[in-house]
Amino acid sequence: MPLSSSNPDDAIIWRFDSSECYSVKSGYRMLAHVSDSQIIVSIISNVDQIKRLYSALWSLAIPTKIKVMFWRFIKNYLPTNVNLYNMRIHLATNCTLCAGEAETVYHILFCPFTTSILSHLGIALFLPSSEHNWLLWLSSFFDQLDKKKMVLFVVSIWGIWTYRNNKIHNQMSQSAMDLVRFIKSYVGELTSIADNDASLCPASRMHWIPPLGDTIKVNFDACFNSRYRTSFSGVVARNNGGYIMAAGTIPHLFVPSPEVAEAYACIDALMLARDAGFNSVIIEGDALTIINKANCREADRSVLRSLVKQIHSRRAFFASLTFSHVVRTCNAVAHLLAREGRDFPGPRFWVEEAPPSVEEAALKDKRWVDLQN
Ligand SMILES: [Zn+2]
């Protein structure tokens, strides 16, 4: 700075604009520049840590839609109220879940609602030192978690975000405990699929559990007649409220074994889901062999190979498809429907209803779910 030969008075100048006068525009530019460079410097010096976060996320054995949602969460691409406000789409910025603070992705993570859900699930968050370093905070938090806890954490954030969206768009009045139960059961199903170990199921699941959000759960079962070599498939689709969306019974001739009968029922469940236009689907049954083969990505070499191939080829119909094994008590409605099928000579389908005895059984499932609220 050149020195003056005279003795002028001190003056406050704004060095971030050539006019040396403050303007909102130059203030915004300065803030963006300073915070970005801080982030860039800290990210460059911790690049391995960030890499670990992304590779840990993409390696998790969970549906891609959940990983993509979490990635958008990390990148601040979610339509939070603050992001919608910045895009001039939304006027209110308050958090949908607690109404307390502005709804940023950062706030969603540390929202009292989120921390309460996470603490019920055994996950304790520690506070980051500054909001600007939250990506680094997230990576160091991930570093402390084992794979199972990572799955639980990522699925929880996805569940909370879906819960928040349902609250806005569907005016849903699901309780927080209901959400905790859903996350536990969903992670239980994922773990059981990943481990290919059905022994985890009976202990954790004795009752039918509804799907979350827009996902539809289709239960299937088969009634096999060894004398006449016939079978009857029972398939029933229910939504997150436990309501029947569609149901069907389908007879099959020349069925050599109960396994083939169950494979037909699984295919029938997929066809019902496709014909009804469901996009995100869980196919659930008590036939462990069929569920394991449906989940196995490799070509099947058993006598069921042509049917397993049909099951695999139907994956393309859906944006999200999960196969889940449950014990018989969780599959009572589909079982009953398969038995009812014996009364009908041809295929029968119902939309938003089912035979009275089946509706009664579905209501029983729903009552048990409602009782947990
Ligand atoms: Zn909040």
Describe it for me?
The protein is α/β, with parallel strands linked by helices and 373 residues long. The protein folds into two domains: 127 residues, no CATH class; 156 residues, Nucleotidyltransferase, domain 5. Helix content is 49%, strand content 12%. It has 15 helices and six strands. The chain has a six-stranded mixed beta sheet, sandwiched between helices. A hairpin with a 4-residue loop joins strand 1 and strand 2. The chain is elongated. About 2% of the residues have low confidence. The site of zinc ion has 8 residues, from loops.
Characteristics of this structure?
6 strands, alpha/beta, 373 residues, 12% strand, 2 domains, Nucleotidyltransferase, domain 5, binds zinc ion, 15 helices, single chain
**Number of helical segments?**
15
Mass-distribution shape = elongated
Q: What average pLDDT do the residues reach?
A: 83
**Unreliable runs, pLDDT <50, ≥5 residues?**
196-204
CATH homology superfamily of the largest domain: Ribonuclease H-like superfamily/Ribonuclease H
CATH class label of the largest domain? Alpha Beta
Number of strands: 6
Strand order, main sheet: write it out: 5-4-1-2-3-6
> Main sheet?
6 strands, mixed
Total count of domains:
2
Q: What is the architecture of the largest domain at the second tier of CATH?
A: 2-Layer Sandwich
